[in-house]
């Protein structure tokens, strides 16, 4: 990272940023070019290991790519705000972000309900009674994070 003054290495601070984000972008290997897709996600941390959960249709390009190569890179960001420096006649953005890598596995049918509940909790909707019949036609993915880093530029008041 070029701007070490903006790097976040504290695990809990990175987790706090993830909790504020509502979209995670997954980048997969598609040969000559990466394939990236924005997804809703759920966060689970067990004994210092970070897991991200996603749901999607049972077929499609991302699933085909993951079956060929389950290594992914992910990115999420939040707290965007324009910072204007009128005296210097320039501007920038404040933000917080997390970038990382890991491997994706398909969640077994018997574990999908709990994984989907983790996803719902991320959006503060854990008491929503969703139609469990949809589980059998929903793919659920589990990303085991192998490395991640955070970055922050905050607006100075």
From TrEMBL:
Reading the lineage from the top rank, the first entry is: Bacteria
- Supply the InterPro entries for this chain: Pyridox_Oxase-rel, Split_barrel_FMN-bd
User: What protein does this entry describe?
Assistant: Pyridoxamine 5'-phosphate oxidase family protein
Source organism per entry reads Candidatus Lachnoclostridium stercoripullorum
